[in-house]
Amino acid sequence: MEVKKIAFSPPDIGEAEIEAVCEVLRSGWITTGPRTKELERRLMEFCGAAGVVCLNSATAAEELILRLLGIGEGDEVLVPAYTYTATAAAALHTGAVVKLIDSRPGSWEMDYEKMAEAITERTKAVIPVDLGGMVCDYKTVYGLLEEKKHLFHPSGRIQEALGRVAVVADCAHALGARRYGKMAGTIADFSCFSFHAVKNMTTAEGGAACWRRIEGMDDDEVYRRFQLMSLHGQSKDALAKWKAGAWEYDIEAPLYKCNMTDIMAAIGLKQLERYPGMLKRRREIIREYDKLCDRLGLLHPQHYDGDMESSGHLYLVRIPWADCEVRKEVIGKLGERGVACNVHYKPLPMMTAYKNLGYDILDYPHAYEYFANEVTLPLHTMLTEEDVAYVIQQVEEVLMDVGNRGAGTKNKEKEGGLVGNAIP
After folding, report:
1. What is the value of pTM for the model shown?
2. Do the Cβ atoms of 185 and 171 come closer than 8 Å?
3. Cα 220 to Cα 191: distance, rounded to the nearest angstrom
4. N or C terminus of the chain: which is more exposed, having fewer CB within 10 Å?
5. Which residues, at least 6 apart from 416, have a Cβ–Cβ distance to it below 8 Å?
6. What DSSP element (H or E) covers 112?
7. Rounded distance, CA 359 to CA 372, Å?
8. d(CA 164, CA 167)
9. Which whole-number Å values give the CA distances from 120 to 62, 78, 97, 113, in the listed order?
């Protein structure tokens, strides 16, 4: 058998992106400038957001959102236990207390009832995570936050305009996703996207903060505040200072440095032009993976279900009869056959940093249960039809091999039985 090499998530970069970067380098303007402003404008149009500011990462975007909301020492932020560290770390950077929330049984989403139970008079924000590009149940989130409004104590004008705990979406995976007929980036009060190299749309590194229209909030002032926070508190960016006679500026506060460059934005502009086709290709691959999982009795979330249309960023598979050791063997054997897989995610309470903060995975049984037998298959727009067929064949053969040798037999009666028996 010829062993193909199937990368997990390479960037889809073409000649258009390469030429765009070369044009920036030749222009003499490589930092935040006209291309960054144009990418912000295009993203506003794409999402329908009230405002967008491009930054150097989604992590920076989330932290600046929380700081804009006035969140700091003594405040509480609610975060899913089942997520990447950036979601919680950005809140910790502000000095806030992070309360981790367990998952719903059998789901990647946080348990919204437990979220509501965790709200106190110090709670200022909740951060749902649109994992893999699947949009969370924000209607339920908003409904529960309305029920808890009597506990809310605002600090600052934006919180007063909201009148309740802020909803800050971690949309790192979800550019182009929809739910309730709305685009990700306009459903939550504030949202942050990632354009890291492994994301659907990339600027190498990079991200963006965006927000929906909120009565009583001045969108121009919000944008200005983001600009200040991302450029050392400087009252003018480099592009504005470049104009003849406009050298003078003020430092309004000793703030942060996390702006996007025009080199990054040039890549993003070309990626955004291609993005509808990239989303279409991801959907085609997911359709084939769904058939595989349904045939083998594997568990997988619904990316396109009812009122939700995913961005198709990750394909998460759960092997009902497996445990962590069997999952490790499966990933290893797929790797030997050239298929690179991953796990999304190891819950935060299992990580050293969060253990040291006092979190215990025993308090998050549903997050652990979802993690313990999850495998993420390669899903990206560089996959050919032959590549997808190869991945499917290798998954079938490896699971048949591992299953028929009795790996995980202690769980074979659970949720569908041994996978070998499910293969026609």
Report:
1. 0.93
2. yes
3. 17
4. C
5. 297, 320, 321, 422
6. helix 112-117
7. 18
8. 9
9. 22, 11, 12, 14
Q: How far apart are CA 418 and CA 130, in angstroms?
A: 31
* Three-state SS at 169: strand
pLDDT tens readout for residues 249-271: 899 999 999 999 999 999 999 99
- What angle in degrees, to the nearest 10, is found between the helix axes of 385-404 and 262-296? 50
d(CA 71, CA 325): 41
Of 292, 363, 58, the closest CA to residue 185 belongs to 58
Q: Which amino acid would we find at residue 42?
A: R
User: How far is residue 178's CA from residue 311's CA, in Å, rounded to a whole number?
Assistant: 8
**Half-sphere exposure of residue 384: CA atoms within 13 angstroms, side-chain side:** 5
d(C-alpha 101, C-alpha 82), whole Å: 8
Q: Residues 27-81: pLDDT tens digits?
A: 999 999 999 999 999 999 999 999 999 999 999 999 999 999 999 999 999 999 9
Dig out the tokens for 248 from the structure. Answer: 């003078």
pLDDT digits over 369-415, tens only?
A: 999 999 999 999 999 999 999 999 999 999 999 987 654 444 444 44
DSSP code string of 58-79: HHHHHHHHHHHTT--TT-EEEE
Q: Residue 156 has what DSSP assignment?
A: S
H runs (alpha helix) in 231-323: 238-242, 262-296
Q: Which residue matches tokens 């790797």? A: 335
